[in-house]
Amino acid sequence: MVLESGAGEGSGFSDDDYSRRGARITRDRAEVWGCDLVMKVKEPLPEEYGYLRPGLVLFTYLHLAADERLTRELLGSKVVAVAYETVQLPDGELPLLTPMSEVAGKLAVQEASYYLKRTHGGKGTLLGGVTGVAPGTVVILGGGVVGTNAAKVALGMGAQVTVLERNPRRMAHLDDVLHGRIQVLMSNPYTVEQAVAYADVLVGAVLIPGARAPRLVTRDMVRTMKPGSVVVDVSIDQGGCVETMRPTTHSHPVFEWGGVIHYGVTNMPAAVPRTSTVALTNATIGYAIALARKGWRAACRDDPALARGLNVVEGAVTHPAVADAHGLPFTPAEEILREA
Ligand SMILES: NC(=O)c1ccc[n+]([C@@H]2O[C@H](COP(=O)([O-])OP(=O)(O)OC[C@H]3O[C@@H](n4cnc5c(N)ncnc54)[C@H](O)[C@@H]3O)[C@@H](O)[C@H]2O)c1
Predict the structure, then answer these.
(1) Residue 120 a catalytic site member
(2) Is 334 found in the same domain as 249?
(3) Catalytic: which of 200, 237, 262, 319?
(4) Residue 250 annotated as catalytic
(5) Residues 133, 127: contact at Cβ < 8 Å?
(6) Whole-structure pTM over 0.85, yes or no?
(7) What is the domain range of residue 319?
């Protein structure tokens, strides 16, 4: 194993931690990219495109549907590119996205409670309340992985929690696991409007796979929120579900609109890299070992979930959404895997 020197530093893992376990540490990027299998977290940067070559297997987040330039680079270089975000289990779960959604969901309420403080510009409400004083209200749009984790933290803090969902099975699940402790409502324009108006904290956590997030909260609805309330739109990485939200960064996480604090950080897990790295690696490691030991072809033949991660294979686009997004021809991965 070869590690780019300092690669683990941001997450609290030193070069020594890796070399003690047998890794070779190098400052030479070309040496790292010379390996048969290269793992990263984010997509290759333009200055790394020159290292892409036939025979290389790249395993990382790619989000190619939103990046035509990278798609064409991967195609032209004839690499095999396996994207974390499209590895998919038979029940539809995306196991390499779930850990990041858990982190973002839990962080959403932590961040909101921070900005709710008067000293940080908020209305000065303690989410848990105290004896004789009502707790704060947390409204969560979407009861998937992000929404459920946000609900758990909000409950743990003692807040009054409402989740709006539109999938009856998810609603039943939330009711089963958090029964009686949160309010689960069918999401429609009327219930969203009512709930937004009483929220001290509004968390956007909706997802329509492969599509832009639906704009559920209009500008007019935000105007009905109390001054100093906080909106954390976790779905901002898919365009956001609150009309007044725009993407923000960890160095400038919030802005104010109509007296309401808006938090729209697109990569929330980066704030807690120690937890995020371990959570992501727990999920990727089994697939990485299979790719390394068996080679990509056998590993993907043996595991259809991993095969769904194949986005670009030796000059062909093997994921329908990527082909669709850029008007490129689509070759089913199964067809390539059938070849000797
Ligand atoms: N900002 C970040 O750092 C960050 C990190 C992780 C995830 N995310 C994003 O968070 C979002 C949620 O991710 P997830 O893993 O929880 O997805 P998920 O699929 O587990 O959950 C999304 C839920 O939204 C529900 N939904 C769809 N339309 C709805 C509507 N109109 N009203 C109410 N609910 C509706 C779905 O039924 C589903 O249960 C995604 O956009 C994801 O990309 C962002």
Answers:
(1) no
(2) no
(3) 237
(4) no
(5) no
(6) yes
(7) 36-87+273-338
